């Protein structure tokens, strides 16, 4: 199933694809999703979250588009390296083959060599699934997405009508002055798609008002899409309503009929539970998110969603208050007054770092529940170390010459270690990113252990710096609990403050594994602690 977008970007193609994936999965089909990004970067790993939103990390350690996060939140299939590729990656593969002589002297061209490589990558990623949904990034009409569109046109032909399906997502704008929904941009966008040889089978029309029947007829007439396959996708207050909305529109039935798939009816009970929990909150809390990209919430997409999931699982309305950490660099951080919990997310770069340390300090001193993720754990450690007398404690990422490098590259703090072999093993990794899912051992008797309810957990990483074990003894004596260690016991993964009712920092990113149906123990625990604080402790 190929999904393209028309008229404007940001229509929610990723959410629509993921939601359709969820309904098909509810019909007991094995679904996978693949995102093709037309930009030249090899992957979004180096792209600014300002421009591109968060970098999502898969279990197998790929840095991917944030749409893969939506996919994993909606379907049970685990995404990996193969589920996201860019123009840059395709060209890299082709150029490598050309250098190797694989093309036997042929002139290497966009058609067939680039399009063949795109098709190969799609089929490889689709392998093993009943239905593969292939989402093409960008909007029809963009120059850069043309090779992708040509490749899916070819693949559609090769697979034939029973095995390939084209869905086009468009916008039906509402003109308030005339009180009308307008279909013209959709007509043009489908015309554009047909001019490159793709006839959509299904149109998903995003609109703020329900589509009147007459308008569906008109769209169907102009685009040669069956009337029944002109689907309306209304704006919703939560993305988790979209699976049931699309199901009510009969989208899964249309897809299964076209593919002649005989499946049970969709069992959406898991999703209905999510919706009913969302509609029945019993309390509300304010969570301060102290970060850098405050004006652009896509930069923290998975954390925002994980907080919403925690709200679902604790029946709590979670209001996220974005605070620019630079605003906290003054001695009296007044903006932290009316909040019930503080979250410091991951991050890179020095800007606002002292403000993040202040946020950890404020939480520590005022018994405010604190969740520090990755950099958020590192700043909590820095604050703790400063408090117990290591006044100049810092991370070497920000202060390379600090006399107390409590956070540093592994290669910087293992040089005195007696175990040479281990040192070499880590020295290599020290300069690169620790990426992807890894096991972590939790200590019995810690808060984190109680939350997860098990000893071995598996969480995803994306960072270079680590807690410096040379400070372990000193900080432990002062009350820092090392609640989680890497599988080999050498790296600190979770810290807790034993003098505080709920203060946890984790080196991994729990937000990447939180889903609306299952939630996540750390986030649910955090929101329960925020509720308790709001009720019993808040001044
Ligand atoms: N910049 C820190 C590091 O590389 C933290 C990274 C993160 O928060 N994802 O270790």
From TrEMBL:
Keyword annotations: ATP-binding, Glutamine amidotransferase, Ligase, Magnesium, Metal-binding, Nucleotide-binding, Pyrimidine biosynthesis
Residues that bind Mg(2+): 67, 135
Residues binding UTP: 9, 182-187, 218
Entries under SUPFAM superfamilies matching the protein: Class I glutamine amidotransferase-like, P-loop containing nucleoside triphosphate hydrolases
Keyword Magnesium (UniProt): yes
Top-level taxon: Bacteria
One Gene Ontology biological process: pyrimidine nucleobase biosynthetic process
Pathway linked to the protein: Pyrimidine metabolism; CTP biosynthesis via de novo pathway; CTP from UDP: step 2/2
Record: residues binding L-glutamine: 347, 375-378, 397, 464
E.C. no: 6.3.4.2
Region: Amidoligase domain, residue numbers: 1-261
Domain CTP synthase N-terminal: 1-261
Residues annotated as domain Glutamine amidotransferase: 296-528
Enzyme active site: 374, 509, 511
Keyword Isomerase carried by entry: no
Gene3D superfamilies: 3.40.50.880, P-loop containing nucleotide triphosphate hydrolases (3.40.50.300)
Residues annotated to bind ATP: 10-15, 67, 236
Notes on activation and inhibition: Allosterically activated by GTP, when glutamine is the substrate; GTP has no effect on the reaction when ammonia is the substrate. The allosteric effector GTP functions by stabilizing the protein conformation that binds the tetrahedral intermediate(s) formed during glutamine hydrolysis. Inhibited by the product CTP, via allosteric rather than competitive inhibition.
InterPro entries reported for this sequence: Class_I_gatase-like, CTP_synthase, CTP_synthase_N, GATASE, GATase1_CTP_Synthase, P-loop_NTPase
Binding site for CTP: 9, 142-144, 182-187, 218
Function in brief: Catalyzes the ATP-dependent amination of UTP to CTP with either L-glutamine or ammonia as the source of nitrogen. Regulates intracellular CTP levels through interactions with the four ribonucleotide triphosphates.
Subunit structure: Homotetramer.
Record-stated family: Belongs to the CTP synthase family.
Name of the protein in its database record: CTP synthase
Lineage, highest ranks first: Bacteria, Pseudomonadati, Pseudomonadota, Gammaproteobacteria, Thiotrichales
Annotated gene: pyrG
């Amino acid at each position: 199933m190929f999904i393209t977008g028309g008229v404007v970007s940001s229509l929610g193609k990723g959410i629509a694809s993921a939601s359709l994936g969820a309904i098909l999965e509810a019909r007991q089909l094995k679904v996978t999703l693949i995102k093709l990004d037309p930009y030249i970067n090899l992957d979004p790993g180096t792209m600014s979250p300002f421009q591109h939103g968060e970098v999502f990390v898969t279990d197998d350690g790929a840095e991917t588009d944030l749409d893969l996060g939506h996919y994993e939140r909606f379907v049970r299939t685990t995404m990996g390296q193969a589920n996201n590729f860019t123009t840059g990656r395709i060209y890299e593969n082709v150029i490598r083959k050309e250098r190797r002589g694989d093309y036997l002297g042929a002139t290497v061209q966009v058609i067939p060599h680039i399009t063949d490589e795109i098709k190969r990558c799609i089929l490889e990623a689709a392998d093993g699934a009943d239905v593969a949904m292939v989402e093409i990034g960008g909007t029809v009409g963009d120059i850069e997405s043309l090779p992708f569109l040509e490749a899916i046109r070819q693949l559609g032909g090769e697979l034939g009508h029973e095995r390939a399906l084209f869905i086009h997502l468009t916008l039906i704008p509402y003109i308030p002055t005339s009180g009308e929904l307008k279909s013209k941009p959709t007509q043009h966008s489908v015309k554009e798609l047909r001019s490159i040889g793709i006839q959509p089978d299904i149109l998903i029309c995003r609109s703020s008002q329900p589509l009147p029947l007459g308008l569906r007829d008109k769209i169907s007439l102009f685009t040669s899409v069956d009337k029944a396959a002109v689907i309306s996708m209304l704006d919703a207050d939560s993305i988790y309503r979209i699976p049931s909305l699309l199901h009510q529109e009969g989208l899964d039935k249309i897809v299964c009929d076209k593919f002649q798939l005989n499946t049970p009816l969709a069992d959406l009970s898991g999703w209905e539970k999510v919706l009913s929990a969302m509609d029945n909150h019993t309390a509300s809390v304010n969570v301060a998110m102290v970060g850098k990209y405050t004006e652009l919430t896509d930069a923290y997409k998975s954390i925002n969603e994980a907080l919403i999931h925690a709200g679902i699982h604790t029946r709590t309305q979670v209001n996220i208050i974005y605070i620019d950490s630079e605003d906290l660099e003054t001695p009296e951080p007044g903006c932290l007054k009316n909040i019930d919990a503080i979250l410091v997310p991951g991050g890179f770069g020095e800007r606002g770092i002292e403000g993040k340390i202040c946020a950890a300090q404020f939480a520590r001193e005022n018994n405010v529940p604190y969740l520090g993720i990755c950099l958020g754990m590192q700043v909590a450690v820095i604050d703790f170390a400063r408090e117990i007398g290591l006044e100049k404690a810092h991370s070497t990422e920000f202060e390379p010459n600090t006399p107390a490098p409590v956070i540093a590259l592994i290669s910087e703090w293992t040089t005195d270690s007696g175990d040479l072999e281990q040192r070499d093993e880590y020295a290599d990794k020290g300069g690169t990113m620790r990426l992807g899912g890894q096991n972590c051992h939790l200590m019995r008797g810690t808060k984190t252990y109680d939350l997860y309810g098990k000893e071995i957990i598996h969480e995803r990483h994306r960072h270079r710096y680590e807690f410096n074990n040379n400070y372990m003894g000193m900080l432990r004596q002062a009350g820092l609990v090392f609640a989680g260690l890497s599988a080999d016991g050498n790296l600190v993964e979770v810290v807790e403050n034993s003098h505080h009712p709920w203060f946890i920092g984790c080196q991994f990113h729990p937000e990447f594994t939180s889903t609306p149906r299952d939630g996540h123990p750390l986030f649910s625990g955090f929101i329960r602690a925020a509720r308790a604080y709001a009720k019993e402790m808040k001044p």
